[in-house]
Amino acid sequence: MGEENVKNLKSEQGAALDSIDLQFKDIDAAYKTKSTWEIIRALVILRTCSYNYFVDNSVKFLGLSQRFLGRSLTDFVVKPTFYGHFVAGDTPESITSTVRKLKSGGVRPMLAVPMEEDVNENIPMDEKYGRNLSAILDCILLSRHVEESRPMMQLKVTALIPADLVAKLTILYNEEKITVEEIAAYMETGALVKNECLDEEELSQLHKGLDRLAQVGKLAVEKKVRVLVDAEYTYLNPGMSLVTLAMMVLYNKQTPWIWNTYQCYLKGALSSIRAELDVTKRHNVCFGAKIVRGAYMEKEKLLALNEQREDPINPSLDATGDMYNAVVNAMLEHIKDVGTKCNIIVASSNEGAVRTTIQRLDQLGIDPGEDSVCFGQLMGMADHVSFSLGSAGFPVYKSMPYGTLEDTIPYLSRRAQENRSVLQESLHEPFSLHEVLKRGNLSVNAQLLSGDPLVVHIFEATLEACG
């Protein structure tokens, strides 16, 4: 395979995929589904989000706007702009409409319920987690409704089990004082977990949380929806892996319905994914992995400094890139051996990581049409990567939060703060967007020529501002 193109890859049905520009400069493929307004909006928003001051204070700005302008006027301004760029919608109809447009460009949805949890949050538990469970089960049903071919959704374990308890499970799992098998046994048979390190209340909350996760796993299998468990902080991740691996043991008998996430900015990413893969091998079940760079770098570094322990983060961006490629390559080599028993999603906006993965797929002779390997990016970011992949026939997903403005803006603000490096990378995309606006041979500009004076004015002003 050459540097520039991947040709004649076969889909599962035997149809040939088109070649893909591995430099991701095929503007026609990348933005053919975008309206002129959406391109202008993307240019402005991605540029705005590159400023740390705006990202750090976005929730504050929203609150001030609602206070002084009122909720209705704030919604009028924010919904068609920042909300519309990053969020799928707040009703089944609006979400379906957003998904339909994505799918017209060959991109699939991966729905995410915006939920935020951390330790030391004193909120009444049962009612909150009951509401969270209901929302997550609804997300499974909605995911099946909007995507019939291999639907996916994201799950935060701390939306169903208290983060303080997960942090304690991390300690116990690291010290080998609790096992995946104990957790799986309770979820399957109701055999109570007995652990002298957990008090009566903690055991009660653990059992309730595992009951909630069991409901998620059972419905996911019934509806054939893949559930991708998000990673969080290093003081939570092993505890979350404990329960996620237990779900894999129970629900991944024939197909990888439950996946875990691996953060490659961590020095131990490769050893972690290998160790967890070994657990599934021991139980002869399928394995699913979402491979990300990671989104909690600043807090992890600060925690390590305050606790006077070794920084868990790789020393440089290059080291993180090398780790990412090493983790992906290890999983590709495993997929070469076991086929669809192992599935991964290369969840990266980095062009180099995507390019390297595609080249390695070709070297190993792995058919992308089997969907053992797919790609993913955040909604509203790296569209030139997502739609280029989708247009060429590669399985690619957009992570799509959905919900009300009040629910999603704090979630998006936190994701933006955690993904500063990705936002900086996204500065490459406005140059592509600018080029689209300058060209007149795309269908998107037909909308401009329809004569809407406001759109024409914004179009001309944006071109002038972008040089």
TrEMBL record:
Record-level GO cellular component terms: mitochondrion
Bilayer-spanning residue ranges: none
Catalysed reaction, written as an equation: trans-4-hydroxy-L-proline + a quinone = (3R,5S)-1-pyrroline-3-hydroxy-5-carboxylate + a quinol + H(+); L-proline + a quinone = (S)-1-pyrroline-5-carboxylate + a quinol + H(+)
Keywords (A to Z) from UniProt: FAD, Flavoprotein, Oxidoreductase, Proline metabolism
Record-listed E.C. numbers: 1.5.5.2
Segment forming the signal sequence: none
Entries under InterPro entries matching the protein: FAD-linked_oxidoreductase-like, Proline_DH_dom, Proline_oxidase
The keyword Oxidoreductase is assigned to this record: yes
The Proline dehydrogenase domain, residue ranges: 157-424
Pfam families: Pro_dh (PF01619)
Cofactor(s) for this UniProt protein: FAD
Similarity comment text for this entry: Belongs to the proline oxidase family.
Protein's name in the database: Proline dehydrogenase
Species name: Owenia fusiformis (Polychaete worm)
Classification of source organism: Eukaryota, Metazoa, Spiralia, Lophotrochozoa, Annelida
